[in-house]
Design goal:
single chain; alpha/beta; Rossmann fold; Immunoglobulin-like; 3 domains; 13 helices; elongated
């Protein structure tokens, strides 16, 4: 609606008068209302689309740039989608860095007569405090990255021969024989390392033999694991804990336990170290800066964002101010009810922490004291280092967390790794940035999705 609403209305009335001079007054009123032009609004994320539709009602046509099933953090608009924004009357985006594409759209349309609203501007954002400490006091780590069920201390082993077997040859292995040796489990992460990360693994026998003379072996990626000569013994290590550095993709590691006569009494299957450096993860403009942009998840702060949308619509179509104000007040009341439900959830919860695939829920922590333990950072693309991942798993074990929350449209492998290590149940939480096909089919809106989130949190936080 780039032309004047008033001019369009006059033209329509003039045509109606010429062609329907004999029409009664009620029909003329209906004709005038039906011919009213609508504002064309483009939004960046679903909450803004939903609120704009609710406030604008009959006087807006609203479409979202990020399509159903996409991720706002990483989505790149097509040229046709960019043109659609250029042809719109207004573009409303969240800002604060959540949409990687927002700046390019703003630059493209700011001289095209398109009204631009950054909805988070002027709203009190919280700082991005995701640092993987999760606000829980912890003892210093003393190489306890292995699972708690195998936490027996080995620091007091005397090993009078102190690694005297470190240099014994692979011929000795064959000489004493390994047939019939017991099985060894290796605990710790073998995947999702970055180059240079510390690798910490621990070995444990499936059936206790009473021996404690451990040796670890490594195999270069291009070597044959069946060739015992290719395996290199790790020097200065006679315990059940391996400590090294992730240097080569595909490196293999195994452990053997020797008896009093230097025979192999138990050994593990090799584990392969997987390195994923994501070299370009931080080169696509997905960083969020110093603030958490997921402000729409706070019902109280969302009122301020919705009010800015209402003010924009009033500025663009002042003759409908009363209509927009009434719709906004209805929306504001729904935000208040949602806030009350969150407060009741927090009061009834017997657990105060949930673990989720990415740290996008800090506003619940800030307002209601519901602590998030994010596996990835503020953006799902900000994956943790291996040491941070191990720390997350340990903290979740200490807190006894039995669920891992996954988001629709995003299934990071690193979250699945945590779930597997915890043996936790997977549930879903909705970030609301974009709908899924199932959401569309169900007729979901902002409030129905947020109430679904509350029900999920009731289970996770034991607030039933």
């Amino acid at each position: 609606m780039k032309k004047s609403i008033a001019t369009a209305s006059v033209a329509v009335l003039f045509l109606n008068a010429c062609s329907n001079a004999g029409t009664d007054s009620s029909n003329e009123a209906e004709e005038e209302q039906g011919s009213e032009e609508k504002l064309t609004i483009m939004t960046s994320i679903f909450p803004l689309e939903d609120w704009t539709k609710k406030i604008g009602g009959d006087y807006v046509d609203v479409a979202n740039v990020v399509p159903v099933g996409a991720d706002a953090h990483t989505y790149e608009p097509t040229p046709n989608e960019m043109m659609a924004v250029t042809d719109a009357d207004a573009f409303i985006y969240n800002g604060a860095g959540v949409e990687a594409f927002a700046d390019s759209i703003v630059n493209a349309v700011e001289n095209e007569g398109v009204e631009i609203l950054e909805a988070s501007d002027g709203v009190e954002l919280i700082e991005d405090s995701h640092d993987h400490d999760h606000s829980h006091d912890r003892d210093d780590h003393e190489h306890d990255d292995h699972s708690h069920e195998h936490d027996e201390e080995h620091d007091d082993h005397s090993h009078e021969d102190d690694h005297e077997h470190d240099d014994h040859s692979h011929e000795d292995d064959h000489e004493h024989g390994e047939t019939g040796a017991g099985s060894v489990d290796i605990d710790g992460l073998s995947d999702h390392y970055h180059s240079g990360d510390d690798v910490q693994l621990s070995a444990s026998e499936e059936e206790e033999s009473g021996h404690d003379d451990w040796h670890w072996y490594t195999l270069a990626p291009d070597e044959d694991p069946e060739d015992e000569e290719a395996w290199e013994v790790v020097p200065d290590n006679g315990t059940d804990t391996y400590e090294g550095t992730a240097e080569e993709e595909g490196q293999q590691i195994k452990a053997k336990l020797f008896g009093d006569d230097h025979e192999v009494v138990a050994q593990s299957e090799p584990v392969t170290i997987a390195i994923d450096d994501h070299e370009d993860d931080h080169d696509h403009g997905h960083e969020h800066g110093d603030y958490d942009p997921h402000v729409w998840l706070d019902p109280v702060l969302s009122v301020g964002m919705a009010e800015q949308i209402k003010d924009l619509l009033v500025d663009m179509m002042p003759e409908q101010e009363e209509y927009f104000e009434e719709n906004f007040e209805t929306l504001k009341a729904e935000f208040g009810e949602l806030d009350q439900e969150f407060q009741e959830l927090a009061e009834q919860a017997t657990i105060d922490t949930f673990i989720v695939s990415h740290a996008g829920y800090g506003y619940w922590e800030e307002r209601y004291g519901i602590n998030q333990m994010g596996i990835a950072g503020i953006s799902p693309t900000n994956e943790p280092s291996q040491s941070q991942l191990v720390e997350t798993i340990e903290q979740a074990e200490e807190l006894g967390l039995e669920h891992v929350l996954f988001e629709p449209n995003i299934t990071p492998a690193v979250a699945e790794t945590v779930q597997d290590h915890l043996g936790a149940e997977a549930l879903h939480i909705h970030p609301l940035e974009a709908l899924t096909e199932e959401d569309v089919e169900a007729g979901a809106d902002y409030f129905s999705l947020m109430k679904d989130n509350i029900e999920t949190l009731r289970t996770v936080l034991d607030a039933d």
